[in-house]
Amino acid sequence: MSRTLVVVHSCQIYCQPTYFNVHCMNDGIREIPPITSACMMAHDIQKHDSNSTNVLHSLAAGAIAGALAKSTIAPLDRTKINFQISQEPYSGRAAFKFLSDTYAKDGFIWLWRGNTATMTRIIPYAAIQFTAFEQWRKLLEVDSLSTKNNGGLKFLSGSLAGVTSQTLTYPLDLARARMAVSTKNDYKSLGDVFKKTFKVEGIKGFYRGYVPTILGIIPYAGTSFFTYGSLKSFMKEKHGYENTVVNLACGAVAGMAGQSSSYPLDIIRRKMQTSIITGINYTNLRTTFIMIYKTEGIRQGFFKGLSMNWIKGPIATGISFATYDFVRKTLKNI
Asked: How far, in Å, CA of 4 to CA of 15, rounded?
């Protein structure tokens, strides 16, 4: 009589026409009918185990990718936030002066002020975002034969991944922004930011600027993931190129596209997040929009620092996507 052997961890499942034997190392042999249930059970266990491993790989790869990308561009990020929340006109010369003055006054390490808060936020954020993207792709069946050419679903998967990760880590993003533009006298540490925010503003204070953030992350994450995935597939299928350098270039283009699609909302959320430091009462999305327009105009108000974003954004996004793919592939091959 023929039989099929399926191995799941330390158990061997023999699928036979009318029954199956489950032989485990510590429990001996058990005979359980019927065959269909046995094989389905074995398949489900293997499928669950495979998905769990993929999730762990995505979490680890995403965390490493996010940490490396953000640490690389931390001084530029701090400079951008400083100009976003102030009414000082932005220029390349002014940005360089801010960096040089910071270095002269506080030292080289101070250029990375707030990076501890950034790491505390970006490691879980990037881990969740990349993992959520993979799970949303699977749930929406983006790669199935009937939907693989559906760009809308690819965009939606990226947007939902961004919303998921941003919602779960938003208080850390707010703390990071406040540390980046404050002095030692304002906040001594990340814990001090949380303590003072809760004392002065309550729980609501941790979600100041949440609405424009979510409105901005939808086009940003959707555009970034869609552009990166599309360019990567194009380079592989049309030209046969698939390596870290190509992935860096594809990620850089994706970063520029994503940043440009949501930048005005990024300005609004930063002003709302740091209003308690600047002393300007940006209470909600509508009020903040009107105040920026009246005091700074459209170009200096909503696109201030965009040129720096076109430098740091592609660098960070390129490193992030390329590192994620490299680490995930490495973990799979271990």
From this structure: 5
H or E stretch covering 276: helix 275-278
DSSP-assigned beta bridge partners for residue 28: 24
b/e sequence 175-192, b meaning 16+ C-beta within 10 Å: bbbbbbbbeeeebeebee
3-state secondary structure 38-87: HHHHHHHHHHHHHHHHHHHHHHHHHHHHHHHHHHHCHHHHHHHHHHHHCC
Please list the pLDDT of the chain residue by residue as tens digits (334 residues): 444 444 444 454 444 444 444 444 445 544 444 545 554 555 555 555 577 888 999 999 999 999 999 998 888 888 877 787 777 777 778 888 888 888 888 888 878 877 887 888 899 999 999 999 999 999 988 877 565 567 888 899 999 999 999 999 999 888 888 887 777 788 888 889 999 999 999 998 899 989 999 999 999 999 999 999 999 988 988 877 778 899 999 999 998 888 888 888 888 988 888 888 878 888 889 999 999 999 888 888 888 878 777 888 889 999 999 999 999 999 988 8
Q: Degrees (nearest 5) of the Cα angle 242, 248, 249?
A: 90
Nearest-angstrom CA–CA distance, 267 and 275: 12
pTM over 0.85: no
> What SS3 class is residue 213?
helix
Phi, psi of 23 (to 5 degrees): -110, 110
